[in-house]
């Protein structure tokens, strides 16, 4: 694209000069300018779908043709298949004088010292700034508004890249019940669904634990029977193979809890046998579950004097024998109250980690320590997860829900590290 732009610029200068007899520079320039337009639309879509997210957003402003192509189902599908992992950071000011903000950070493996972030919710009038991210699926976010004692509960489904969201109607229940939600996709019916579970707040034997499903576009909840275990401790990046996954600590030892949105059934995914082995020194226990590079992973914390934890990866989904111990992080010198969440495996062999929802760093295996150059260490409360942005429009799936728009355009900001290893954000020209 840069070469074409340069050629067009040179052609403009030539047009301002006196043409010599027999000169063909004008026609050559016109041919160069029309080169991209003459390409088949399928090829243009294929090229655009391979670009980084910020480049795609810039291309939407080039012309109406490209803008239209980026809403084409072929582009949406190709981009979703190729969409690289990004970091999604939710910043919430402790004093709540400012709005909650979402930042999208591209994972550039070659250079972590120069980053560019996209402010997804800059100075917007969101229905409630006290929302939290429940989980991500196909580039869509499920957001839950903390009620803080209010009687109503609000759930949103949002595409932060397109700035679209819809409200999911929630029927309030007796306060004796806890309500938990998760969002997913059924490839069998090509539908997006919200799962809701009801659990007694205190005495779990007092009433049955129930589950309901809301299919986006229908406007109705329907019962799917009893819920065998609690839908809680949900990681935002834990959707894989039509199923959402989580660790349920009160029961189901030795398994990952899951819900299949195609079959609309709860299920269990067996953990590696080592997750329940007592080696005489410390007891290993599952502490988190998520998805990295298309595979389910879990972390095992080991309670012993030499603090460490292991990262296991299920290389073939559903096959318990395919669990493989990929990394053992040791000599972390952390307290028992501090937790680590793997975010991404870098091609260099290093691991991108979130430390106790307070900072982000890179673990260097050969040095057995976390690199001190943490590129995000903000003063506000923040939650970070891995997110694959997409161009799935809620307008195409919400038949009865009212489509709402957050803002007309995204604001790009460049982020660089200052001498104190904190992110410094400067406006882009």
Written description of the protein model:
This is F-box domain-containing protein. InterPro entries: F-box-assoc_dom_typ1 (IPR006527), F-box-assoc_interact_dom (IPR017451), F-box-like_dom_sf (IPR036047), F-box_dom (IPR001810), SCF_F-box_component (IPR050796). It comes from Salix brachista. The longest helix has 14 residues, at about 1-15. The chain has 2 domains: about 1-10 and about 30-80, no CATH class; about 85-425, TolB, C-terminal domain (Neuraminidase, 6 Propeller), CATH 2.120.10. It is mainly beta and about 425 residues long. It contains 7 helices and 27 strands. The chain has a 6-stranded antiparallel beta sheet, with no helix packed on it. The chain has helices spanning about 1-15, 25-35, 35-40, 40-50, 55-60, 65-70, 75-80, and strands spanning about 85-90, 100-105, 115-120, 130-135, 140-145, 155-160, 165-170, 175-185, 190-200, 210-215, 220-225, 235-240, 245, 255-260, 265-270, 285-290, 295-300, 310-315, 325-330, 340-345, 350-355, 360-365, 370, 380-385, 405, 410-415, 425. The protein is globular.
Briefly summarize what is shown.
This is F-box domain-containing protein. This protein is mostly beta strands and 429 residues long. The chain is 14% helix and 40% strand.
